[in-house]
Amino acid sequence: DPEAPKKPVGGAYGIFLADNREAIKKSLPADAKITDVTKEAGKQWAVLSEEAKKPFQDRYIEKSEVYKKESEEYKKTHVADDDEEPAKGGKKAKKEKDPDAPKKPAGGAYAVYLADNREKINKSLPEGHKMTDVAKEAGRQWKELSEEARKPFQDRYLEKSEVYKKAKEEYMKKTGKTGDDEEEEEEGVEETSPAKKQKASPKKRAAPASTEAPAAKRGRPGAKASAAPEAPEIDSSVMTEATGLNLHVALKNLAARPDVLSSGKSHKELLEALKGNNGLVNKAKASLLGA
């Protein structure tokens, strides 16, 4: 939700980087990449004493408290979003996430561009327009940008990714968690694939080996194969564009859906639907199929 309060990311290190970015940038060679800045910041942060880190940690805690209060107020006046969409059988697929876990930046350079230009685009559209119209217009504008014009947004996305990596490392040290559960949805995989479900089923793996040949294996008549249907090969030009927008995983996910496959929609239409729905697979599918 673009109107929802934004959670502070990057932890205390993120604040340290924001404070020292320009000074570090000036200390590096003129042709230094944005990743060189974050690497140098990471080195400086690593050698700081706990006492020196404390002011940044305190500021992050303060920002987090402000976010929590704003988030509580926001939830009182807004309905829940797609985080809990109905799963099979009518039950909600609840995902219990650690609110303190660092959030991986999603959407690639395009998401940075959208965040910067959302308000301006919002004002340029007719009154009463849909929220998806903003993303569609942003997608159209982004497509027309030259590689040179896109570079600042790509650099900022790389920087956000580096900050996330550093914050995740610290989070893992403190909690011993891997953060895999938090990353799954952010990568565009909104549902566990049948292949993953099969791997995650220890009962099936532990079943005693049958003495019969595979062809003689008993099963229910008409039972579906456990393997997930393979998605068709994505058009190379569309996949290149999707990769640049960090939507390649979501595109593969969407293209593999049986109802999307049977609809005959082109890969370009699928990508446009994802761009118009902020990379959310289920929303993109609904817009494509009119559900």
UniProtKB/TrEMBL annotation:
Residues 71-80, 146-179 have a biased composition (Basic and acidic residues). Residues 71-111, 146-239 are annotated as: Disordered. Transmembrane segments: none annotated. One of its GO terms (cellular component) is nucleus. Residues 207-216 have a biased composition (Low complexity). Pfam families: HMG_box. Residues 6-75, 103-172 form the HMG box domain. The keyword Disulfide bond does not apply. It comes from the Eukaryota. PROSITE patterns: HMG_BOX_2. Residues 196-206 have a biased composition (Basic residues). Keywords: DNA-binding, Nucleus. The keyword Nucleus applies. One of its GO terms (molecular function) is DNA binding. Residues 6-75, 103-172 bind DNA. This is HMG box domain-containing protein. It comes from Polarella glacialis (Dinoflagellate).
